[in-house]
Design brief:
Belongs to the AIR synthase family. It catalyses: 2-formamido-N(1)-(5-O-phospho-beta-D-ribosyl)acetamidine + ATP = 5-amino-1-(5-phospho-beta-D-ribosyl)imidazole + ADP + phosphate + H(+). GO terms for molecular function: ATP binding; phosphoribosylamine-glycine ligase activity; phosphoribosylformylglycinamidine cyclo-ligase activity. Its EC number is 6.3.3.1. It comes from Serinicoccus hydrothermalis. There is one protein chain. By secondary structure, the protein is α+β, with helices and mostly antiparallel strands. The protein folds into 2 domains: 15-166, 2-Layer Sandwich (60s Ribosomal Protein L30, Chain: A), CATH 3.30.1330.10; 173-363, Phosphoribosyl-aminoimidazole Synthetase, Chain A, domain 2, CATH 3.90.650.10. It is built from 11 helices and 15 strands. The protein has helices spanning 15-31, 71-78, 84-97, 117-134, 195-205, 220-224, 232-242, 256-262, 281-290, 294-300, 316-325, and strands spanning 37-38, 47-48, 59-67, 102-112, 137-145, 155-166, 181-186, 212-213, 218-219, 246-251, 269-274, 305-311, 330-338, 347-352, 355-363. The strands form 4 sheets. Strands 10-12-7-13-11-15-14 form a 7-stranded mixed sheet, sandwiched between helices. A 4-stranded mixed sheet has the order 3-6-4-5, covered by helices on one side. A two-stranded antiparallel sheet has the order 1-2. The longest helix has 18 residues, at 117-134. The chain starts with 14 loop residues before the first helix and ends in an 11-residue tail after the last strand.
Protein backbone atom coordinates (compact mmCIF):
# COMPACT_ATOMS: atom_id res chain seq x y z
CA UNK A 1 0.00 0.00 0.00
CA UNK A 2 1.26 3.47 -0.89
CA UNK A 3 2.32 5.75 1.95
CA UNK A 4 1.26 8.76 -0.12
CA UNK A 5 -2.33 9.66 -1.02
CA UNK A 6 -3.15 8.94 -4.64
CA UNK A 7 -4.83 11.78 -6.48
CA UNK A 8 -6.20 12.14 -9.99
CA UNK A 9 -3.20 14.35 -10.80
CA UNK A 10 -0.71 11.74 -9.56
CA UNK A 11 -2.52 9.21 -11.75
CA UNK A 12 -1.58 11.38 -14.71
CA UNK A 13 -4.70 13.48 -15.35
CA UNK A 14 -4.37 17.26 -15.17
CA UNK A 15 -7.88 18.73 -14.95
CA UNK A 16 -6.52 22.28 -14.85
CA UNK A 17 -4.62 21.73 -18.11
CA UNK A 18 -7.91 20.75 -19.72
CA UNK A 19 -9.50 23.98 -18.50
CA UNK A 20 -6.62 26.01 -19.94
CA UNK A 21 -7.02 24.22 -23.27
CA UNK A 22 -10.69 25.21 -23.38
CA UNK A 23 -9.81 28.85 -22.75
CA UNK A 24 -7.23 28.80 -25.56
CA UNK A 25 -9.63 27.29 -28.10
CA UNK A 26 -12.60 29.57 -27.43
CA UNK A 27 -11.78 32.13 -30.10
CA UNK A 28 -11.32 29.47 -32.77
CA UNK A 29 -14.64 27.84 -31.91
CA UNK A 30 -16.46 31.19 -32.05
CA UNK A 31 -15.51 31.51 -35.72
CA UNK A 32 -17.01 28.12 -36.56
CA UNK A 33 -20.66 28.90 -35.88
CA UNK A 34 -24.01 29.23 -37.62
CA UNK A 35 -27.06 31.26 -36.57
CA UNK A 36 -28.89 28.07 -35.60
CA UNK A 37 -26.46 27.23 -32.79
CA UNK A 38 -27.91 27.61 -29.30
CA UNK A 39 -25.81 27.97 -26.17
CA UNK A 40 -22.05 28.24 -26.01
CA UNK A 41 -18.87 26.34 -25.39
CA UNK A 42 -18.77 24.16 -22.28
CA UNK A 43 -22.27 22.70 -22.22
CA UNK A 44 -22.94 19.01 -21.80
CA UNK A 45 -24.40 18.86 -25.32
CA UNK A 46 -24.29 21.06 -28.38
CA UNK A 47 -27.68 22.40 -29.44
CA UNK A 48 -28.85 23.32 -32.92
CA UNK A 49 -32.19 24.97 -33.77
CA UNK A 50 -33.82 22.59 -36.24
CA UNK A 51 -36.95 24.69 -36.85
CA UNK A 52 -35.79 25.39 -40.41
CA UNK A 53 -36.45 21.75 -41.21
CA UNK A 54 -40.17 22.41 -40.75
CA UNK A 55 -40.15 24.15 -44.10
CA UNK A 56 -38.81 21.07 -45.88
CA UNK A 57 -41.18 18.62 -47.54
CA UNK A 58 -39.44 15.42 -46.41
CA UNK A 59 -36.15 16.16 -44.68
CA UNK A 60 -33.65 13.31 -44.56
CA UNK A 61 -30.84 13.51 -42.00
CA UNK A 62 -27.40 12.34 -43.10
CA UNK A 63 -24.64 11.58 -40.60
CA UNK A 64 -21.01 10.57 -40.83
CA UNK A 65 -18.11 9.87 -38.48
CA UNK A 66 -14.41 9.44 -39.19
CA UNK A 67 -10.85 10.15 -38.10
CA UNK A 68 -7.65 10.91 -39.97
CA UNK A 69 -5.85 7.61 -39.55
CA UNK A 70 -2.11 7.48 -39.07
CA UNK A 71 -1.58 10.98 -40.46
CA UNK A 72 -1.62 12.04 -36.80
CA UNK A 73 1.71 10.22 -36.40
CA UNK A 74 3.25 12.60 -38.95
CA UNK A 75 1.82 15.64 -37.17
CA UNK A 76 3.33 14.36 -33.94
CA UNK A 77 6.69 13.61 -35.57
CA UNK A 78 6.86 17.14 -36.96
CA UNK A 79 5.35 18.72 -33.84
CA UNK A 80 2.86 20.61 -35.99
CA UNK A 81 -0.75 20.26 -34.95
CA UNK A 82 -2.70 23.11 -36.56
CA UNK A 83 -3.58 21.34 -39.83
CA UNK A 84 -4.76 17.90 -38.74
CA UNK A 85 -8.12 19.32 -37.64
CA UNK A 86 -8.95 20.46 -41.16
CA UNK A 87 -8.23 16.90 -42.32
CA UNK A 88 -10.76 15.64 -39.80
CA UNK A 89 -13.46 18.02 -40.99
CA UNK A 90 -12.85 17.15 -44.63
CA UNK A 91 -13.08 13.43 -44.00
CA UNK A 92 -16.39 13.81 -42.16
CA UNK A 93 -18.41 16.56 -43.84
CA UNK A 94 -17.56 15.70 -47.43
CA UNK A 95 -18.88 12.18 -46.93
CA UNK A 96 -22.20 13.83 -46.10
CA UNK A 97 -22.14 15.95 -49.27
CA UNK A 98 -21.93 12.76 -51.36
CA UNK A 99 -25.66 12.27 -50.74
CA UNK A 100 -26.41 15.86 -51.73
CA UNK A 101 -26.95 16.85 -48.10
CA UNK A 102 -25.83 20.09 -46.51
CA UNK A 103 -23.71 19.41 -43.40
CA UNK A 104 -25.08 21.45 -40.49
CA UNK A 105 -23.07 20.78 -37.36
CA UNK A 106 -20.11 18.78 -36.10
CA UNK A 107 -18.59 17.53 -32.85
CA UNK A 108 -15.02 16.36 -32.23
CA UNK A 109 -13.19 14.02 -29.87
CA UNK A 110 -9.51 14.24 -28.97
CA UNK A 111 -7.87 11.48 -26.94
CA UNK A 112 -4.35 12.13 -25.67
CA UNK A 113 -1.78 10.76 -23.29
CA UNK A 114 -1.23 14.17 -21.73
CA UNK A 115 -3.13 17.42 -22.17
CA UNK A 116 -0.81 20.11 -23.45
CA UNK A 117 -3.16 23.11 -23.70
CA UNK A 118 -1.34 24.77 -26.59
CA UNK A 119 -1.31 21.54 -28.58
CA UNK A 120 -5.00 20.85 -28.00
CA UNK A 121 -5.83 24.44 -28.94
CA UNK A 122 -3.81 24.08 -32.16
CA UNK A 123 -5.71 20.92 -33.08
CA UNK A 124 -9.06 22.58 -32.41
CA UNK A 125 -8.02 25.67 -34.41
CA UNK A 126 -7.65 23.41 -37.44
CA UNK A 127 -11.04 21.83 -36.79
CA UNK A 128 -12.63 25.28 -36.49
CA UNK A 129 -10.94 26.47 -39.67
CA UNK A 130 -12.24 23.42 -41.52
CA UNK A 131 -15.74 24.06 -40.22
CA UNK A 132 -15.52 27.66 -41.40
CA UNK A 133 -14.50 26.50 -44.87
CA UNK A 134 -17.40 24.06 -44.97
CA UNK A 135 -20.02 26.39 -43.46
CA UNK A 136 -20.55 23.89 -40.64
CA UNK A 137 -21.09 24.74 -36.98
CA UNK A 138 -18.72 23.24 -34.42
CA UNK A 139 -21.22 22.71 -31.60
CA UNK A 140 -19.18 20.72 -29.14
CA UNK A 141 -16.36 18.33 -28.45
CA UNK A 142 -14.43 16.40 -25.86
CA UNK A 143 -10.77 16.18 -24.88
CA UNK A 144 -9.90 13.06 -22.89
CA UNK A 145 -6.60 12.41 -21.15
CA UNK A 146 -5.59 8.72 -21.10
CA UNK A 147 -2.28 8.31 -19.27
CA UNK A 148 -0.97 4.76 -19.46
CA UNK A 149 -3.05 4.06 -22.56
CA UNK A 150 -1.37 6.65 -24.78
CA UNK A 151 2.16 8.01 -24.47
CA UNK A 152 2.39 11.62 -23.26
CA UNK A 153 3.01 12.97 -26.77
CA UNK A 154 0.43 10.78 -28.50
CA UNK A 155 -3.11 11.72 -29.45
CA UNK A 156 -5.86 10.73 -31.86
CA UNK A 157 -8.81 12.68 -33.24
CA UNK A 158 -12.28 11.73 -34.42
CA UNK A 159 -15.43 13.60 -35.31
CA UNK A 160 -19.04 13.27 -36.35
CA UNK A 161 -21.37 15.54 -38.30
CA UNK A 162 -25.01 15.71 -39.30
CA UNK A 163 -26.60 17.20 -42.40
CA UNK A 164 -29.95 17.33 -44.16
CA UNK A 165 -31.33 16.88 -47.68
CA UNK A 166 -34.78 16.72 -49.24
CA UNK A 167 -35.76 13.12 -49.90
CA UNK A 168 -36.33 13.69 -53.61
CA UNK A 169 -32.96 15.45 -53.94
CA UNK A 170 -30.82 12.59 -52.59
CA UNK A 171 -27.98 11.82 -55.00
CA UNK A 172 -26.86 8.29 -55.76
CA UNK A 173 -26.89 5.29 -58.09
CA UNK A 174 -30.63 5.54 -58.72
CA UNK A 175 -30.02 8.74 -60.71
CA UNK A 176 -27.12 7.58 -62.88
CA UNK A 177 -27.94 7.16 -66.58
CA UNK A 178 -26.39 5.68 -69.69
CA UNK A 179 -24.15 8.29 -71.32
CA UNK A 180 -23.34 10.21 -68.13
CA UNK A 181 -19.89 11.69 -67.83
CA UNK A 182 -17.47 11.45 -64.92
CA UNK A 183 -15.64 14.57 -63.76
CA UNK A 184 -12.54 14.62 -61.58
CA UNK A 185 -12.07 17.28 -58.89
CA UNK A 186 -8.44 17.88 -57.96
CA UNK A 187 -7.17 16.94 -54.51
CA UNK A 188 -4.84 19.15 -52.50
CA UNK A 189 -2.40 16.27 -52.15
CA UNK A 190 -2.47 13.02 -50.18
CA UNK A 191 -5.46 14.12 -48.08
CA UNK A 192 -5.85 11.71 -45.13
CA UNK A 193 -5.66 8.20 -46.55
CA UNK A 194 -2.80 5.83 -47.15
CA UNK A 195 -0.40 7.20 -44.56
CA UNK A 196 0.51 3.74 -43.31
CA UNK A 197 1.94 3.14 -46.78
CA UNK A 198 3.49 6.61 -47.06
CA UNK A 199 5.16 6.42 -43.65
CA UNK A 200 6.48 2.91 -44.38
CA UNK A 201 7.92 4.06 -47.70
CA UNK A 202 9.58 7.13 -46.19
CA UNK A 203 10.95 5.14 -43.26
CA UNK A 204 12.43 2.47 -45.53
CA UNK A 205 13.99 5.08 -47.82
CA UNK A 206 15.92 6.79 -45.05
CA UNK A 207 14.50 10.18 -46.03
CA UNK A 208 13.77 12.66 -43.25
CA UNK A 209 10.50 14.58 -43.04
CA UNK A 210 12.45 17.86 -43.07
CA UNK A 211 14.22 17.00 -46.32
CA UNK A 212 13.81 19.70 -48.95
CA UNK A 213 12.42 18.30 -52.21
CA UNK A 214 12.81 20.77 -55.12
CA UNK A 215 9.96 19.22 -57.14
CA UNK A 216 7.62 19.72 -54.19
CA UNK A 217 8.81 23.25 -53.49
CA UNK A 218 8.99 22.52 -49.75
CA UNK A 219 9.99 19.80 -47.33
CA UNK A 220 8.63 16.29 -47.63
CA UNK A 221 6.83 16.63 -44.29
CA UNK A 222 5.21 19.93 -45.23
CA UNK A 223 3.89 18.38 -48.44
CA UNK A 224 2.51 15.36 -46.63
CA UNK A 225 0.84 17.51 -43.97
CA UNK A 226 -0.99 19.62 -46.58
CA UNK A 227 -4.56 19.55 -45.23
CA UNK A 228 -7.40 17.80 -46.99
CA UNK A 229 -9.30 19.98 -49.44
CA UNK A 230 -12.84 20.66 -48.27
CA UNK A 231 -15.29 20.49 -51.17
CA UNK A 232 -18.51 21.23 -49.29
CA UNK A 233 -19.35 24.75 -50.46
CA UNK A 234 -18.48 24.28 -54.18
CA UNK A 235 -20.35 20.99 -54.31
CA UNK A 236 -23.46 22.38 -52.62
CA UNK A 237 -23.43 25.18 -55.20
CA UNK A 238 -23.13 22.53 -57.91
CA UNK A 239 -26.12 20.71 -56.42
CA UNK A 240 -28.18 23.91 -56.47
CA UNK A 241 -27.10 24.89 -59.98
CA UNK A 242 -27.44 21.56 -61.80
CA UNK A 243 -30.48 20.20 -59.99
CA UNK A 244 -31.59 16.85 -61.36
CA UNK A 245 -28.78 16.85 -63.96
CA UNK A 246 -26.28 16.04 -61.19
CA UNK A 247 -26.64 12.34 -60.52
CA UNK A 248 -23.95 11.13 -58.12
CA UNK A 249 -20.90 12.25 -56.18
CA UNK A 250 -18.10 10.20 -54.65
CA UNK A 251 -15.47 11.13 -52.09
CA UNK A 252 -12.16 9.51 -53.08
CA UNK A 253 -10.82 8.19 -49.79
CA UNK A 254 -9.63 4.72 -48.74
CA UNK A 255 -9.76 2.32 -51.67
CA UNK A 256 -8.85 4.89 -54.30
CA UNK A 257 -10.73 6.41 -57.19
CA UNK A 258 -12.08 3.29 -58.92
CA UNK A 259 -13.48 1.60 -55.82
CA UNK A 260 -15.17 4.73 -54.52
CA UNK A 261 -16.67 5.58 -57.92
CA UNK A 262 -18.02 2.02 -58.21
CA UNK A 263 -19.92 2.54 -54.93
CA UNK A 264 -22.14 5.24 -56.47
CA UNK A 265 -22.91 3.46 -59.75
CA UNK A 266 -25.90 1.16 -60.20
CA UNK A 267 -25.36 -2.52 -60.86
CA UNK A 268 -25.12 -3.21 -64.58
CA UNK A 269 -23.26 -0.03 -65.45
CA UNK A 270 -19.63 0.45 -66.41
CA UNK A 271 -17.66 3.67 -66.03
CA UNK A 272 -14.59 3.86 -68.25
CA UNK A 273 -11.99 6.18 -66.74
CA UNK A 274 -8.88 7.33 -68.57
CA UNK A 275 -5.59 8.09 -66.81
CA UNK A 276 -5.45 11.38 -68.68
CA UNK A 277 -4.02 13.58 -65.94
CA UNK A 278 -0.57 13.88 -64.39
CA UNK A 279 -0.66 13.01 -60.68
CA UNK A 280 1.07 15.62 -58.48
CA UNK A 281 4.75 14.89 -57.74
CA UNK A 282 4.13 13.51 -54.24
CA UNK A 283 2.41 10.44 -55.73
CA UNK A 284 5.28 9.77 -58.12
CA UNK A 285 7.71 10.21 -55.25
CA UNK A 286 5.95 7.64 -53.06
CA UNK A 287 5.78 5.18 -55.95
CA UNK A 288 9.45 5.52 -56.88
CA UNK A 289 10.85 5.64 -53.33
CA UNK A 290 9.00 2.48 -52.35
CA UNK A 291 8.85 0.79 -55.76
CA UNK A 292 5.14 0.55 -55.04
CA UNK A 293 3.22 -1.38 -57.72
CA UNK A 294 0.80 0.88 -59.57
CA UNK A 295 -2.31 -1.16 -58.67
CA UNK A 296 -1.42 -0.95 -54.98
CA UNK A 297 -0.73 2.78 -55.27
CA UNK A 298 -4.08 3.45 -56.97
CA UNK A 299 -5.99 1.36 -54.41
CA UNK A 300 -4.40 3.31 -51.55
CA UNK A 301 -3.94 6.95 -52.63
CA UNK A 302 -6.18 9.41 -54.46
CA UNK A 303 -3.60 10.08 -57.21
CA UNK A 304 -4.59 13.74 -57.39
CA UNK A 305 -8.38 13.28 -57.59
CA UNK A 306 -10.22 13.97 -54.33
CA UNK A 307 -13.81 13.82 -55.59
CA UNK A 308 -15.72 12.67 -58.66
CA UNK A 309 -19.06 13.81 -60.03
CA UNK A 310 -21.36 11.86 -62.34
CA UNK A 311 -23.78 13.98 -64.36
CA UNK A 312 -25.57 14.52 -67.65
CA UNK A 313 -23.09 14.99 -70.50
CA UNK A 314 -24.66 18.23 -71.68
CA UNK A 315 -24.06 19.83 -68.28
CA UNK A 316 -20.40 18.89 -67.96
CA UNK A 317 -19.18 22.23 -69.31
CA UNK A 318 -21.25 24.17 -66.80
CA UNK A 319 -20.04 22.00 -63.92
CA UNK A 320 -16.40 22.44 -64.90
CA UNK A 321 -16.90 26.20 -65.20
CA UNK A 322 -18.58 26.47 -61.81
CA UNK A 323 -16.11 24.29 -59.89
CA UNK A 324 -13.02 25.77 -61.53
CA UNK A 325 -14.37 29.23 -60.74
CA UNK A 326 -14.61 28.15 -57.10
CA UNK A 327 -10.93 27.24 -57.11
CA UNK A 328 -11.24 23.49 -57.69
CA UNK A 329 -9.55 22.29 -60.88
CA UNK A 330 -12.03 19.99 -62.63
CA UNK A 331 -11.82 17.94 -65.81
CA UNK A 332 -13.60 15.05 -67.54
CA UNK A 333 -12.07 11.61 -67.05
CA UNK A 334 -14.71 9.15 -68.17
CA UNK A 335 -18.17 8.07 -69.27
CA UNK A 336 -20.83 5.68 -67.99
CA UNK A 337 -22.52 3.02 -70.10
CA UNK A 338 -25.05 0.29 -69.50
CA UNK A 339 -23.89 -3.31 -69.69
CA UNK A 340 -21.45 -5.59 -67.87
CA UNK A 341 -17.69 -5.33 -67.82
CA UNK A 342 -17.27 -7.84 -70.62
CA UNK A 343 -13.85 -8.79 -71.92
CA UNK A 344 -12.41 -5.29 -71.72
CA UNK A 345 -8.87 -4.08 -71.57
CA UNK A 346 -7.84 -2.18 -68.47
CA UNK A 347 -8.18 -2.62 -64.73
CA UNK A 348 -11.76 -3.32 -63.63
CA UNK A 349 -13.10 -2.78 -60.12
CA UNK A 350 -16.60 -3.95 -59.27
CA UNK A 351 -18.24 -3.69 -55.90
CA UNK A 352 -16.51 -2.08 -52.93
CA UNK A 353 -17.09 -1.85 -49.16
CA UNK A 354 -20.07 -4.17 -49.29
CA UNK A 355 -21.88 -2.21 -52.02
CA UNK A 356 -23.18 -4.25 -54.96
CA UNK A 357 -22.70 -1.39 -57.39
CA UNK A 358 -21.43 -0.83 -60.87
CA UNK A 359 -18.01 -1.41 -62.37
CA UNK A 360 -15.15 0.94 -63.14
CA UNK A 361 -12.59 0.23 -65.85
CA UNK A 362 -9.41 2.30 -65.70
CA UNK A 363 -7.46 2.53 -68.94
CA UNK A 364 -4.38 4.17 -70.38
CA UNK A 365 -1.23 5.48 -68.75
CA UNK A 366 -0.57 8.65 -66.80
CA UNK A 367 1.44 11.28 -68.68
CA UNK A 368 5.05 11.00 -67.58
CA UNK A 369 5.97 12.73 -64.34
CA UNK A 370 9.63 12.97 -63.36
CA UNK A 371 10.94 13.41 -59.84
CA UNK A 372 14.40 12.77 -58.48
CA UNK A 373 14.77 10.27 -55.64
CA UNK A 374 18.54 10.65 -55.45
Amino acid sequence: MSDQPITYASAGVDVHAGDRAVELMKESVRRAQRPEVLGGLGGFAGMFDASALQGMRRPVLATSTDGVGTKVALAQAMDRHDTIGQDLVGMVVDDIVVSGAEPLFMTDYIACGRVVPERIAAIVSGIARGCELAGVALVGGETAEHPGLLDPEEYDVAGAATGVVEHDAVLGPHRVEDGDVVLALASSGLHSNGFSLVRRVVGASGWAWDRQVPELGRTLGEECLEPTRIYTRPLLELVRDLGTDLHALSHVTGGGLAANLARVLPAGTLATVERSWTPPPIFTLVQELGRVPQPDLEQTLNMGVGFVAVLSADRAGRAIELLTGAGVDTWQIGTVSRGGTGEQDGDVVQGAKGVDGGAVRVVGSYPAGVISTQ
